[in-house]
Amino acid sequence: MKEFIDYLLQFGNLNTHQIDLIKGKAKVIYIQKDEYFSEAGKIPKQVGFILEGVVRFLYYNNKGKEITQYFIDENNFVSDQQRFEAQVVASEYIQAVTDCKLLVFSKKDWDEIGNTIVGWHHITELIVKNCLLKTIERRSPLVSEDATSRYNSFIEQFPGLVNRVPLSHIASYLGITQQSFSRIRKNIR
Predict the structure, then answer these.
(1) Is 1 helix (H, G, I), strand (E, B) or coil?
(2) Pair 131, 149 in one domain
(3) If you compute the radius of gyration of the chain from its CA atoms, what whole number of angstroms results?
(4) Could you give the angle at the alpha carbon of 130 between the alpha carbons of 126 and 136, nearest 5°?
(5) Domain carrying residue 115
(6) Please, is 31 exposed, middle or buried when counting C-beta atoms within 10 Å of its C-beta (0-12, 13-18, 19+)?
(7) Do 109 and 39 share a domain, yes or no?
(8) pTM
(9) Do 32 and 110 sit in the same domain of this protein?
(10) Given CB 3.0 to 4.6 Å as the disulfide criterion, which of 101, 115, 117, 176 pairs with 51?
(11) φ and ψ at residue 48, rounded to 5 degrees
(12) Residue 110 sits in the same domain as residue 77
């Protein structure tokens, strides 16, 4: 819980009563590897903060091929925020890549925090902007770089993930086949 509160305090001030309210609404859940935190075709039910583990956002293209959009690891929020807030059906999946431990908030509890804590919406806006900037920074090189450079960028941005995430997911994220990915890794070693 300390990691979560420390994370929030980067984006705004909270007093002891506000922190106690947030702690009272948080629930710890465990998601096994390959289970979904959120599924396409369903309304996202919760917003989470990863205490342990890695998740990925993915979708299926028009050929039925699984595409990994990005990864999120410890001490970061995870949610399909836009669809969670609007309570509309998700178009992508959020899947545990490893066993995960998360702090989660239901829509009701999240709204109650927002309606009770003055300035909460400002804090969450800053968090969402921060998450979007990180996503853009991580995805932008994937458009303009060659496959080897993309892999090197991945290692730089996610140094701890290479040994925690299946190589097939990394290849999908990089937009290359597993065979090409194997060649690139072999040439870099």
Answers:
(1) coil
(2) no
(3) 18
(4) 145
(5) 2-137
(6) buried
(7) yes
(8) 0.87
(9) yes
(10) 101
(11) -135, 165
(12) yes
C-beta of residue 111 within 8 angstroms of C-beta of residue 45:
no
- Helix H or strand E encompassing 70: strand 66-72
Element (H, E) at 185: helix 178-188
Q: In whole angstroms, what is the distance from residue 189 CA to residue 185 CA?
A: 6
DSSP string, 96-146: ESS-EEEEEEEHHHHHHHHHHSTTHHHHHHHHHHHHHHHHHHHHHHHHHS-
Q: What angle do CA 94, 95, 101 make, to 5 degrees?
A: 105
What crossing angle do the helices spanning 147-157 and 120-144 adopt, rounded to 10°? 150
Residues 167, 114: one domain?
no
In tens digits, what is the pLDDT along the chain, a chain of 189 residues?
Answer: 888 999 999 999 999 999 999 999 999 999 999 999 999 999 999 999 999 999 999 999 888 889 998 899 999 989 888 889 889 999 999 999 999 999 999 999 999 999 999 899 899 899 888 877 777 766 655 566 788 888 888 888 888 888 899 989 988 888 888 888 888 888 876
Question: In which region does residue 56 sit, left (phi positive, over 0), alpha (psi from -120 to 50) or beta (all else)?
Answer: beta
Domain count, the chain: 2
